[in-house]
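Q: Sequence in, structure out?
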Amino acid sequence: MNREIVAGQWPQARQVRSPNQDARPHQEVSLLLLHAISLPPGQFSGDAIEALFTNRLDPSAHPFFAQIAHLRVSAHFLIRRDGQCLQFVDTDQRAWHAGRSYWWDAALSSWRSALNDFSVGIELEGDDQTPFTKAQYEALVAITCALMARYPALTEERITSHAKVAPLRKTDPGPAFDWAYFRQRLAAFRV
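A: Exactly. Output:
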C-alpha cells in the first residue's frame, strides 16, 4: 500500500477537486492544522461537507446551509467517521481553511499569520462533543506521517488545532479530540 504523498496527492484518498485553492506564495509547508466539521452541525454522514468545499452546497437543503453556502473554503483533506479520506487540494497548493489566524512558531521564535500560505489543513468529520473514531485517528496518523516525510519542516511541534490559531473565533477540533492518543499513535506509527 502506497503511503507516500506523490506530487501533492495522497493515493489513499479519494480525489475531489475544490476550486477554493491557489498557489502557495513560497514552497514552504511547515504547519499541520487540525479542524473538525459537521454539516448540518452535530450530524454526520451525507455529502454536505463535500458540497461546501466544492461550492455546491444547496442553501435551501437545511436552515444552517443558508448561512454558509456563500463561503469559499476548503481543506486539503477530510477524514470521515469511518476513516475514509477525501483530498480536495493538492498539498503543494494553498487551501483556504485557516481564516484570520496567527501562530507562535517556536522554531523561528516569531508570531506568524497568513497560515494558509504554509499549512496543510485536515478536517475531521466531528464536533466538539462527540469522540472521534479509532478509524479517524488511524487515517490521521497515516496522513500525518506521509506529510512529515514529504515536508521535512513539518515536525510534531508544528501540529496544532484551529482553536489554538484562532482562539476567539474557533474551538475545533475541540475537547473531544484526544491529543495524547493521537501523539501516542503517531509515535508508534513512525517507529
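The radius of gyration is 16 Å.
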